[in-house]
Amino acid sequence: MNNDDAESILTNEFQSEFNCPNFNASEEYPSIYNTEDRMSLYTQGPNSIYTPGGNLSISENKKKSKSRSKLIDKMLKEEAKKKKESEPDLKILILGSSNSGKSTLLKQMRQNFSKKYTMEELDYFHVVIIENVITIMKLLVEGLELLGLDKKLDENYQNDAAKIKYFQWDKTIFVDKEITEIIIRLWNFKEVKECCNRKNELSTLFIQDTAKYFMDSASRIFDPIFSPTNQDVICCRKPTYDIKETRLLIKDCGNLLVYDVGGQKSLRQYWVPYFSDVHGIIFLVDMSSYDMMMEEDSETNRMMDSLNLFESITKNKLLEVAQFILFLNKVDLFEEKLKKSKIVDHFSDFIGDQLSDKVAKKYFQKKFEERAGRMLLSIQFTNSTDSRLMKKVIVGCMIIIRTVALKSIGVIS
Ligand SMILES: Nc1nc2c(ncn2[C@@H]2O[C@H](COP(=O)(O)OP(=O)(O)O)[C@@H](O)[C@H]2O)c(=O)[nH]1
Ligand SMILES: [Mg+2]
């Protein structure tokens, strides 16, 4: 803020304090160029000066301008203090492909280090969760047909499945009772559960990773007194299309400004303006995506896309001073997947026993290290839905980013 800004704030404050209208020389106050006023200036003698509100002697005027300048100084100091308080100690960007867990990491930061969700936020998540449950069941019904599991089922199933298939949700939390009962009933069919377990084979449907969690919770979610828990919020899925900014205060790490971005290919161009003055980048990878194609580009393997994106981001000149942390995320799903889907079918240079998840983890870790255009500050294997684990991981990562940032400006050696 410069002196002009301070002046204008001051003027506005004075105006509101005295309830006076904006100064308009021609209407409310006599103009200095008005003949009558010019005359009064002369008649009041050399020690008087014109002011719209009255006449003051030079000494009185000096006093007034001194106190005015004191007030401006005070305001400038207060503004500088406010600015300092609002300036983050660390600016962090969360990057990665779509569905890698970026927004989930931000939710973990928020839940662990900031205030509770407001009623409005809980209402928003309530709608997202209902939407998730309905979408999952619609996709499972479609999946059953693709896997041929529906043929085994009786007329009761067929009637319920048809109703869900053609159900149009009006985007409110008040879902028709008949529909909620059908969803709960359908989930009780062992074939529907089998379909959910085999969602790997239905990669074109993109059934969300937390499908089982929400289906198991359907009756709780459709209860009229339902209110989302923190874990419900962590598990729900709503793709990000814009850039979200969140402020957090973490003990021993200071004020954080964290940006969460949309990871789809078409949205990556919007990341660049946020690259300046970044202290740390947390890059997330969906480890379980090694056998999946991208939602927005059905010819590209998701893990391959993550590797290419990681390489280009770590080599980006605008991010030269930023510190990189790599989260090899969704390890829970990765470990499950290793039992049924061969890495070598998608990455021909993989050798070793993939049933040993250590070997498989090491293989992908090395691939990312080879692609990194710089040294990485840390590599973590994470499950972003695990709140206890994430709290520790987040604090640890922020402390090392902060330490490096302080070292780089010579505050610590
Ligand atoms: N099982 C499991 N699910 C995860 C993990 N991380 C994120 N998810 C889920 O994956 C989905 C997509 O995550 P999201 O954070 O929206 O991904 P983004 O597109 O990168 O922001 C959500 O339903 C999350 O609950 C994880 O480590 N394990
Ligand atoms: Mg997101």
Structural class: alpha/beta
The fourth-level CATH homologous superfamily of the largest domain is: P-loop containing nucleotide triphosphate hydrolases
Taking pLDDT < 50 over at least 5 consecutive residues as the criterion, the unreliable ranges are: 1-53
Instruction: Please report the distance between the alpha carbons of the first and last residues.
Output: 33 Å
Note the main sheet. Answer: 6 strands, mixed
Order of helices and strands: HHEEHEHHHHHHHHEEEHEHHEH
What is the CATH third-level topology name of the largest domain?
Rossmann fold
* Rounded mean pLDDT score: 86
What is the CATH architecture descriptor of the largest domain?
3-Layer(aba) Sandwich
Radius of gyration: 31 Å
Task: Report helical residue fraction.
Answer: 40-55%
- Total discrete domains: 3
- Strand segment tally: 8
Q: What best-fitting shape do the alpha-carbon axes yield?
A: globular
DSSP summary: helix tally: 15
**DSSP strand (E) fraction?**
5-15%
In the CATH hierarchy, what is the class of the largest domain? Alpha Beta
